[in-house]
Amino acid sequence: MNLAIVGSVAIDDIKTPSGHREHSVGGSALFAAIASSKFVDCGIVGVVGEDFPEDTVCSLRQQHIDLKGLETGKGKTFRWKGEYCDLNKAETIDTRLNVFADFCPKLPESYKDAKYLFLGNIHPQLQLDVISQSNAEIIACDTMNFWISGTPDLLEEVIKKVQILFINEDEIRMLTDKQNIFDAADEVLKKGPKLIIIKRGEYGSIAYAKDLLYFAPVYPVRNVVDPTGAGDSFAGGFLGYIVKQNKLDNQTIKQAMIYGTVTASINIESFSFDRLISTNKDEINNRVDFLKKIISVE
Amino acid sequence: MNLAIVGSVAIDDIKTPSGHREHSVGGSALFAAIASSKFVDCGIVGVVGEDFPEDTVCSLRQQHIDLKGLETGKGKTFRWKGEYCDLNKAETIDTRLNVFADFCPKLPESYKDAKYLFLGNIHPQLQLDVISQSNAEIIACDTMNFWISGTPDLLEEVIKKVQILFINEDEIRMLTDKQNIFDAADEVLKKGPKLIIIKRGEYGSIAYAKDLLYFAPVYPVRNVVDPTGAGDSFAGGFLGYIVKQNKLDNQTIKQAMIYGTVTASINIESFSFDRLISTNKDEINNRVDFLKKIISVE
Questions:
Q1: Where are the domains of chain B?
Q2: Given a cut of 80, is residue B298 above it in pLDDT?
Q3: What are the residues whose beta carbons fall under 8 Å from the beta carbon of A81, sequence distance 6 or more?
Q4: Contacts of A215 in chain B (CB under 8 A)
Q5: Which of A3, A7, B36, B137 has the highest CB neighbour count under 10 A?
Q6: Under an 8 A CB cutoff, do B298 and A222 touch?
């Protein structure tokens, strides 16, 4: 197992223009793990409450996701209630940390030597705690506006220590106080990461490194049911592909951008990870081929 | 001369985060004509006032732009005063139609058989008047929210009669009342156009036809000085390339999208068309090569 994934596990209550689902299982760790499980075996570190559905645990096992790092705490699973009035922006209605409040992520022994580590969007202090337990060569992390404004110094520490940063375009502007995203990305490259993946929602994503600039378009999804987990399922697909190839050259990064785009596109076609968990290699590869066609000039 | 261009000619007063320029010569016809003149000879139909600078007329002639269709009316040139607080959206501070108020576009005899006709963003009634005078086989048009809400029936008539529609993503949503731009584009294809170019500002553009979906990224400009004319210089570069090839197959359309992206990227690096008028084939081709590189997966 060469990919350890740390993040939140949640039970969400979500309204979107397509409908409403209560008890929608989600969280950054699960979306990322299910997406990457399409390419490689991976293991999760996270915490659930006593109310966490047993059938979800079985489904994750069936995806060959290692759950040794998934603790069960006393009390209820982390809960998020939100609404998407337009599909690009979630309004938080309620957040209950529950068992997540006292979460101290612990890497199981068998995860410590995983070459790749993904830190989903959680408190930067927890991300740092995990980094200190891991021998990973390649660490990737995600974050959000809440930590950029709330715990900037801790986040700075994390960013110093990772090779790959996933970040939204609004957030990289906020992080660097630069309006032009390429100027912003140059600023972040000085802090430590070798590769920045800028996520632009319905406009696709950009891979940016010292010697790389690559634009990936979005996959044209007709019916977005629930955007929750789009970024995490992108990161999971991206990293799954990278870990499978076990390479981080520009050519592999470009391909990984396309795979991440595709896993995210499948994920947003249903609530929770209904679509993502049941998709297969054929569907993923068909979408990859389609995407390559619509961006090819020749 | 195989490309006739009809549109506004203006003297603008523009503030952007980069600065302020009074008497900035612009207008949809000029931006489009200068961009297309990098590929082919073209002719303008438009009106200027007695105050229009003679040296601009000379510069246009030097670009081999045919000015037989450029009338001089009694009074002042059309004036627009605007400000860009953020670079994606202009606030109109003042508009003075001046000679444009009584403009009745007349195609000179030598323009009537031009195979390609571009109708820049002007009143749909004027666009219809021009269509009725032209024998063009391929007609392209641009429009804006003002006409979509103000003269929807006339605009519908125009759209029925054109092969190519250039439109912003917000505007195609407004035109069709569909949020998903692919659904919106399907709706527009039923009305008449064979090809829709959806412009997404800093997120690039999409070419959409029955058997074509193509995403072009934006060229990563570091210093946007003035976005005025971005859409027109895109349309001009796109059409200039198409007219030069004299083909409208998917492969040519994809290439044209890249060329349009590049002419627009050069145009926004200065006020007025300072940069666009002085650019050359080498600079354009270098940017085309760069763009192809950053979207190529292989």
A1: 3-295
A2: no
A3: A12, A13, A14, A92, A93, A94, A95
A4: 204, 217, 294-295
A5: B36
A6: no
Question: Contacts by B196-199 with C-beta closer than 8 Å and gap 24+?
Answer: B196/B164, B196/B165, B196/B167, B196/B172, B197/B164, B197/B165, B197/B166, B197/B167, B197/B235, B197/B238, B197/B257, B197/B260, B198/B167, B198/B168, B198/B169, B198/B172, B199/B166, B199/B167, B199/B168, B199/B169, B199/B231, B199/B234
Closest by CA to B134, choosing from B167, B101, B100, B110, is B110
In contact, B102 and B126? CB cutoff 8 Å: no
Note the pTM of the prediction, 2 decimals.
0.91
What's the pLDDT score for residue A286? 98
Q: Is A292 on the interface with B (CB under 8 A)?
A: yes
List the single residue in A214, A217, A220 with the smallest CB-CB distance to B182: A220
Put simply, the answer to whether B217 touches A215 (Cβ < 8 Å) is yes
Instruction: Give Cβ neighbours of residue B87 (< 8 Å, ≥ 6 apart).
Output: B16, B17, B202, B224, B227
pLDDT, tens digit, 9 for 90 and up, residues B240-276: 999 999 999 999 999 999 999 999 999 999 999 999 9
**Residues B294, A214: C-beta atoms closer than 8 Å:** yes
8 A C-beta contact, residue A263 and residue A241? no
Instruction: Extract the tokens encoding B71.
Output: 């009338």
Residue type, B111: Y
Of B203, B214, B296, the CB nearest to A294: B214
Check residue A7 and give its pLDDT: 97
Query: Which residue bears the tokens 């592909």?
Result: A241
pLDDT, residue A254, reads 96
3-state secondary structure (DSSP) of residue B283: helix
Q: Each residue of A38-69: pLDDT tens digit?
A: 999 999 999 999 999 999 999 999 999 999 99
| CB nearest to A255's CB, from B215, B255, B297 | B297
pLDDT at A296: 86
User: How is domain A3-295 classified at the architecture level of CATH?
Assistant: 3-Layer(aba) Sandwich (3.40)
At A94 the pLDDT is 95
